[in-house]
Queue: 3 jobs
Job 1
Amino acid sequence: MAQDPYQELGVARTASADEIRKAFRKLAKQHHPDRNPGNKAAEERFKRVSAAFDLLDDPEKRKKYDRGEIDADGRETMRGFHAGGSPFGAEFEGGRGADVDINEILSEMFGRGGGQRGGFGFRSEPQRGGDVRARVEIDLEEAILGGRKRIAFSDGRTLDVTIPKGAAEGQVLRLKGQGAPGRAGPGDALIEIAIRPHPIFRREGDNLVMDLPVSVPDAVLGAKVEAPTPEGPVTLTVPKGSNSGSTLRLKGRGLPGARGGRGDLLARVQVMLPEGRDAELEKFAENWRKSRPYTPRRRG
């Protein structure tokens, strides 16, 4: 015959439903087979604790036990003579509280698959290890071209991670089997990608935007100028009469798109005066202003 369920859970016969549940949670967590692999004594204690909670958590069963109508195994007895009961039959008043059962409590404590009810005992399902998370910062060029980065986890492990081409801000890479160990296998490692701000390029959707400094003569007369791209410098043709804000487009030199392909690189012309004062340029500007005055139009 099973032991007195009150003694098994270590609670008084007048304990409330919440006190009984709290005692069960503590003991179940301590003796759960997943916490004690290969420990038969802990497994047996876990079964007894589960059976005791199963009886005392049910208001009707608890009343019958307290009155001596059933024993600790839930079997009917000669009224008033059960082995573990009190002759005074401490009555338990009230309902089952939140109407919880062993599966619900174990699910809260151990996650999904915490266990399955089976007969008078309890069969534990092996638990998969938990997932671990980390964050990695990459350069814009690495997001476009891909690469490898070494990740350090809080448990001291390091792992080399392949950054895929076209990686996006906030994208999460899942590395199977690289998480915490568990009886049913390890969890996964989840790596969140963050892209560092770039000193030259700005992101606009799948496009990259940059400022392209151009001298006054090159803007007026047109020229071929060197411009940076994520893959290296290229030569751009600046048309005659280019103004600041004019945009030169390099097809397919932007960011990889979600549907394949790449966006464009937009080079926005910035007409720049020479540094320092230039007497000849000032004289030319004075003559120009007198002979050919004009008012620039507002853009936008």
Job 2
Amino acid sequence: MFLRIVVSCLIFLVAGSTLVISEGQGERTDRPFAIYAEPVVLDSGDPARRDIGGLRYLGGWVLTSDNLDFGGISAMVLDDDGFVAIGDAGGLFRFALNDEGVITRAAIAQLSAGPIPDDGGDVEKRDRDAEGLAHDPDTGRYWVAFERANGFWRFDSAFERSDADAAPEAMEDWPSNGGAEAMVRLDDGRFLIFSEAGDGPGDSREVLLFAGDPVEDGPPPLRLGYRPPGEHRITDAALLPDGRLLVLNRDFSIVEGVSVIVSIVSLDALTAGTILEGEIIARLDPPVTIDNMEALAIDEQDGRTIVWMASDDNFNPLQRTLLLQFELLALR
């Protein structure tokens, strides 16, 4: 993705950024699970702060592990009582967090299948740049979108094997480092695939709407567009209970650091050439606790819409893997 090198090399230069080495990064002997959670406040300058735009902060944690494969979270979903997350180096992370913010189970693995180099050589990090994740709760199956390969792999509920994959022709011209960035499975079985930098209609980024499972034969996808706010780019999207999309958008500059905009997008008109554009509900900038936010998941609790965000630390010790929890006040 376009920020990978910039963030990894320059982020420590950003004045006023909250991207600092967290406590507990070293080896620990008191961790009962593979992933450890350390609580953080929303705003260190105002620890009592809770509301930011249409979001209310419920809690946040820095996630760490002694396992060097942990990190790079780029997408996640909620499954049963916990999280399933993927990383841009092919990592697979499954963990649960209780109401007290304590990890109750965790496992770290590698995706069992995915793109391989064209020359047949050893699989490297860049080959398994997983950026999108979708889940069908009825069958338990998962779909993973790989950005550089601009293709999909379908996995069983345990991620033990992949039974199908495809690299659609409609995605061939997407930039290898700006391709499939977010994937959403709609309730009727259609799939929306958002490119990070592929050209769409007008000044938008291209979005493809598949009539069904993108790894199965079917009609060509409809070509739409998504216009992110300002200079921000989409990093993930998730379906809300009312049928709209919640979209995570991120930007980075050396002067201002990381900026995150959360917007809601209507899906009323999904026809060829439509440009989707969201209503901004919250903007998170330093000194608010943020990082390279890339993953988004939605939950419902007692009639409330709960928003989870996670960050990609780029495997950089100067960044953090954050897991943040908010209530979406806009849907009250």
Job 3
Amino acid sequence: MKLKSAYRQALMEGGTAGHMQHPFDDNDLKFSDFEKMIRGLLDGHITNHGKVTEKLDGQALSVSWKNGKLIAARNKGQLKGHGENALDVKGVKKMFAGRGELETSFGQAMVDLEKAIKGLSEEQRLKIFGEGQNFMNIEVMYVPTTNVIPYGKNMLVFHGASRYDENGVSIGTVDGSASILAGMIKQINANIQKTFSIQGPQNVTIPRDANFNKQQSRFIKRLTTLRTKFGLGKNARVVKYHEAWWEDRIDKSFKGATLPASTRKGLLRRWVYGDKSYGLTSKNIKDEKVLEKAKKIDKEDYQKLFKKNIEPFEMLFLELGARVLKNVENYISASPEKSVQAMRKELTQTIKSFEGSTDVAQIAKVATHMKKIEKMGGMDAIVPSEGIVFKYKGNSYKLTGIFSSTNQVLGIIKYGN
């Protein structure tokens, strides 16, 4: 079972693409895998597992080609029947009508994409889209609708196509589809359209860290401290740490009570693996006081405890990300240095604008994220990118640094959330 993540974004990445994992989200990984990742990311050898691409901060769109036209899906219902109810260009424009620059961003993206893809042969379109069976996940970067990263140019970047069954359930991916489609479009000189340029994933280079030995030792020492806290070996799955952590928490929370093995196992299933099939009922937990306490933890304390449990791994990889991202070369930004300067300026001005606020809850949230930013290197850790996506043992993982906390601070102050 997979450990439920408390750090998923409110909006699904890629529109219909779903959530991309941080390494610490994956229950199947071992501590030895984490060590290999740390070394590979710091010395650049992570590329031995596959190309490393930039993770982009744009708006999500998923498109396919069916019945001679471009269609888009923004939810599972529009994926059903191989895009039977998906939106065409007019439908997308109508959906975003009256929403300012978003109307132009999504509407013109559809216009430019349809024109570019229409120039391909039927055989080429079938190869990528399968007449609505496959949807290409796209990042829309439009200067007037910039989120956090100011890229300085309008771009449509392909991430890869997912294959869906009749019920709109993902059943796989189309290998190499993003680069192949981008290459097809460039071959017919259709990659530069009226509003957007069109391209495949942005491949980046990770040079060996200038202080590799010191940094490797620093991060692996932190990982070893976590591993040995509960007497785990290198080949132990990381989820065993979470099990031990929650067992300790259960012992402290129910001190003095006698918990049957079935109750303890059930609570671990629920709180470690997110398995809600174990209900907090009198049928499962006979002791009324234990049941009342379990319900309170589940309803009032679980999210805080979950974050406390996962935080050491989260911060390890966020700080590692901040270090690695400073070394990355070939970011997609038109002017990386200008982008960094603009981000530093916006963050500084946004924080200053919040001075004098009487909203205690928001002050606490901002303070929490600013502490994380300082741990990751402060303003010097800002890079013109959300992060990178790398491969390990056939799976894709994201590595981010300061972006998430920066995004949270800007969001709290701009939108109050």
